[in-house]
């Protein structure tokens, strides 16, 4: 079955095509036969298109396209034309899977997209204003381009929907509960995938494991996974809560915001920009939201960069401790995403806080190409570095859902 996965963002889109045999998978990720991306961040009204097939043939172009649907059409064209062609026609696509950031309270599993699902995604735009509009545009663009091909939405919030009430309820007035103001959590597709992959790597039943998953990229979140179920997480009502991130503040005293409104005259929009775009690593370092650039500056003696890294690690360890308490123990720590997969400094400094649990890392923390166990042989807790494969997870969910519908 040929399944296209589309991850439509506000300024970039990523896409993969998987050719899956419904009865042959043992749960091990398979490589896509084609992948492509669109990036509008380089120049106004211009998109950078990159496509590559499994044979390693690459197509790159700068195109005068501002419209997102038109961009997706150009992206899909590389599937059936030119050096990256892998299909005879777009009608060979059997289904399309989408990552949708916010599913609210109603969507706890992947669903086949219909008018009601689209209306729900639209109604949740106020809770994910940077993501849900782009996700919806991607769905509607596929409708225009591929007609009635089945589409499946997989929600980033869904994995966290099984959290206990005490974990998702905020301690405000009870009216908040009735309004749907609660902890939703995000990065759920990634947390679910790496937890399952961890159990597979260790040859253990996930139902037996207490797993702490650390998704550390430009956006950062942790999840406590017990028996394969997400029971706690750091992101909340919005993706701004919890850990310090690339340009987001993470949790701050709400009194600071009241102070800035009263004393400095900040508007809601100014606070939004401050907390989402001008804080985190970027705000404290004064340099960048990219951990690589910040750690390079720290190594050169930049005091602000050092402070930014120190605060990032401190808050990471503190929140990790909270997840361990929710789990009631710890069998496995997983690091994933850009920082989590590549920064040995973060692995080492984050794990130093848990040596009292018998957690010890190997002396050699160099990054391997494949998923790896970086814990010492005698460590009481395994520490894994896993490349998150959200697109593959979405394709698998698509496959399972469509098979169940046909059955």
Automatic annotation (TrEMBL):
Localization (cell): Cytoplasm
Enzyme class (EC, first level): transferase
Record site: Transition state stabilizer: 187, 248
UniProt keyword list: ATP-binding, Cytoplasm, Kinase, Magnesium, Metal-binding, Nucleotide-binding, Transferase
Binding residues annotated for Mg(2+), in chain numbering: 7, 390
Principal localisation: cytoplasm
PROSITE patterns to which the protein is assigned, alphabetical: ACETATE_KINASE_1 (PS01075), ACETATE_KINASE_2 (PS01076)
Cofactor(s) needed: Mg(2+); Mn(2+)
Record note on cofactor: Mg(2+). Can also accept Mn(2+).
Active site: 156
Top-level division of the source organism's lineage: Bacteria
A Pfam family matched in the record: Acetate_kinase
GO molecular function: acetate kinase activity; ATP binding; magnesium ion binding
Pathway: Metabolic intermediate biosynthesis; acetyl-CoA biosynthesis; acetyl-CoA from acetate: step 1/2
Family: Belongs to the acetokinase family.
NCBIfam families reported in the protein's UniProt record: ackA
HAMAP family (alphabetical): Acetate_kinase
Function: Catalyzes the formation of acetyl phosphate from acetate and ATP. Can also catalyze the reverse reaction.
Subunit record text: Homodimer.
Record-given protein name: Acetate kinase
Organism whose genome encodes this protein: Shackletoniella antarctica
């Amino acid at each position: 079955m040929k399944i296209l996965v589309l991850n439509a963002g506000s300024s970039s889109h990523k896409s993969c095509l998987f050719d899956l045999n419904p009865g042959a998978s043992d749960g091990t990720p398979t490589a896509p036969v084609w992948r492509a991306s669109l990036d509008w961040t380089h120049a106004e009204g211009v998109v950078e298109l990159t496509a590559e097939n499994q044979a390693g043939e690459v197509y790159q172009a700068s195109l005068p396209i501002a419209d997102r649907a038109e961009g997706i059409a150009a992206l899909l064209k590389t599937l059936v034309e030119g050096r990256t062609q892998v299909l005879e026609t777009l009608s060979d696509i059997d289904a399309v899977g989408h990552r949708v950031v916010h599913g609210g309270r109603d969507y706890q599993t992947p669903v086949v997209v219909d008018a009601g699902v689209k209306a729900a995604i639209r109604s949740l735009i106020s809770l994910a204003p940077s993501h849900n509009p782009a996700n919806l545009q991607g769905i509607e663009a596929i409708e225009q381009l591929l007609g009635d091909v089945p589409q499946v939405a997989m929600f980033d919030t869904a994995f966290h929907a099984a959290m206990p009430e005490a974990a998702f309820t905020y301690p405000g007035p009870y009216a908040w509960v009735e309004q749907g103001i609660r902890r939703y959590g995000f990065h759920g597709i990634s947390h679910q995938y790496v937890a399952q992959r961890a159990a597979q790597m260790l040859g253990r039943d996930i139902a037996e494991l207490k797993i702490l998953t650390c998704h550390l990229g430009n956006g950062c979140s942790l999840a406590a996974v017990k028996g394969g179920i997400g029971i706690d997480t750091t992101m909340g009502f919005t993706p701004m809560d919890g850990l310090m991130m690339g340009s987001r503040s993470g949790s701050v005293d709400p009194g600071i915001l009241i102070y800035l409104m009263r004393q400095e005259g900040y508007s809601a929009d100014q606070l939004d920009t401050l907390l989402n775009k001008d804080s985190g690593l970027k705000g404290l370092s004064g340099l960048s939201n990219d951990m690589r650039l910040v750690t390079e500056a720290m190594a050169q003696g930049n005091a602000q960069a050092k402070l930014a890294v120190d605060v990032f690690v401190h808050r990471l360890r503190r929140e990790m401790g909270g997840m361990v308490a929710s789990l009631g123990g710890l069998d496995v720590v997983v690091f994933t995403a850009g920082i989590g997969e590549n920064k040995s400094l973060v692995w080492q400094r984050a794990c130093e806080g848990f040596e009292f649990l018998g957690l010890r890392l190997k002396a050699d923390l160099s990054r391997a190409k494949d998923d790896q166990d970086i814990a010492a042989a005698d460590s009481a807790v395994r520490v894994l570095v896993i490349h998150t494969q959200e697109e593959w997870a979405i394709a698998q969910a698509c496959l399972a859902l469509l098979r169940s519908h046909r059955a």
